[in-house]
Design goal:
The protein is α+β, with helices and mostly antiparallel strands. The protein has 14 helices and 7 strands. Bound molecules: iron/sulfur cluster (SF4).
Length: about 350
Amino acid sequence: MPALAQKRPRPGDKPTAARDNLRKLLLKWYDRHARDLPWRVRTGRPDPYRVWLSEIMLQQTTVAAVAPYFTRFLDRWPTVVALAAAPRNDLLGAWAGLGYYSRARNLHAAAQVMAAEGVPTSEAGWRALPGVGPYTAAAIAAIGFGEASNVVDGNVERVMARLYAVEAPLPNAKAELRELAGALVTADRPGDWAQALMDLGATVCTPRSPKCDVCPWSAECAAFASGAPETYPRRTAKAERPRRYGAAFRIEHDGQFWLVRRPDKGLLGGMAALPTTEWRAKKWSRADVLKHVPVAGDWKKTGAIEHVFTHFALTLDVYSADTAPPNDGWWGDASALPTVFKKAAQAGTKR
Ligand code: SF4
């Protein structure tokens, strides 16, 4: 175990041997251990369309979940122009199951801007597109265009908090962690640097059990020196997620479900869905639910599902009926539904 904690760089510091050493160690490790990912190329620069598509899909989503979607999207829409020309509902259907559906709507909107105005070539240009936040713009600029951007997500924050044993808790420490990460960025191999940090955070410096024994930075890492690296980053206690309640209405015929399109604005906006009541803080009684059915029928409760969104947890009672469907909607397959409705469609039998 190292005896000394890593010395923290300060703003305006001249390039130091410590920084150069950290860079050399990590890039050498990356050259040997980089993950083989469908959107990654190991020589030259990747197509910015692929980088953008992968970075949008990877927001809040694991590599394993994204990989098959990425491949299907590229097969179906191989260029940004093809994606821009796709009917929006086709794109939303292809996104079903990946979650955070505003990403799909923004993806389509951004593709249309790029098809009309050209693909941005700078971090600032990407930042102006719908659905592209500071992290995504920095990642695309570094990986797709070789810009020396500071690419900081939760993984990088965790690695910095550990490397320098930052005692300030998240989320207050974010600015400090960003500054520490920025002090390690140079114009040399910025895309590889960003991806090396991502890989280190995803495969070695993992949240619960960092694998310090195989980490290229173990001799430099202050948290490792402390003996309890997994206790970094420090965190303030989290408020408990609120709970909401609702009911979904399931009309099934020959394995197909009666679907409606959700309003464009709001959660799961524009996605195909089962009809539902409003989702609210107060529980729904059966009598209350029956006042909100989409069409008259012999409605029976056939199950209930739980689903966790970013800002709340949902308990959704599932009601089913053998009845003619209402006027608005269409028959569709559960496989094209967002996960919460897929679960509801599969909850219980019809009766
Ligand atoms: Fe993370 Fe351990 Fe490496 Fe430090 S030594 S950066 S805690 S994996």
